[in-house]
Amino acid sequence: MSRDTLLPAAVTEEQFLAVHQDEELLRPGVVELVGRLGLRGLGVERFSDGSLPVYAVGDRHVLKLYPDVYRREHFEVESDVLQVVRGRLPIPTPEVERAGEFEGWSYVLMSRLPGESLATAWPGIPERDREGLADVLGETLAALHAVPSPEVGSLGPPDWQGFLRDQREKCVAHHRADGLDEVWLAQIPDFLDSVTLPPSPPVLLHTEVMREHLRVTRGPGGWRLSGLFDFEPAMLGAREYEFVAVGLFVSCGEGNLLRRLMIAYGYDPTDLDEALQRRLLAYTLLHRYSSLDWYLTRLPAPPDPTLGSLAACWWALH
Question: N or C: which terminal CB in the chain sees fewer CB atoms within 10 Å?
């Protein structure tokens, strides 16, 4: 970093990872940027989680930074999608207030959503309210997937079937490099051969709908969803690809909740069958950020060490 630069250069992924962990390097530039955005004097506090630097600015704003290496992959996607979905979903999404560049980094200044993380609130939410949240989330995903594709036509991948073929070709190698046990690796080719993923018109996908990306508030009528955020990994693809993260990180094997969510989304109860469970696990194996080895440490263990048993356990539908 030169003396004339407040934000350190991060032109490669390795440089970004080093900078991302060093708040002393980032903070002077963030404070300067906040001032230039007309918010000088407001408290600036970095959120502890997230794959990119994100800061609360006062009580009403959030500032997210994107290094140049992720400009197109994350910044352009998130800033564009946030503007497209504004006001179109049953629950709020962050509103883009400013977006631009500062010293080689891109940024989005957005409104801060009310409430607290669903992940931290979850243990204290009664079952009846959890069911209501599942219903609204299903309706929200249906509305997201109904956004006309031409409005987000710049999103990738340009060829969904080609994307799936590429993911399948490297699937076993990917999971082996991730540390997955050979007991599971040996099952992947035959399992994928046994599952048909029918062609589907591409829809706008969030791809990482999880408790950590949902906000909730508690009022006289109980708990309600107060926001969905983190649209940087959005893409166009088959609608069922969305339910990978939903099953892994929202319902987490709780069949009643997933069933309610899927019916609220628009599925007929007769469609909630074993074939759907197997398709969702196939999409899990093929997901661009898949880590089956990690999922096995955080979700309920299936009764048998088979992928078929895993599909029925994690995407229980009753």
Answer: C
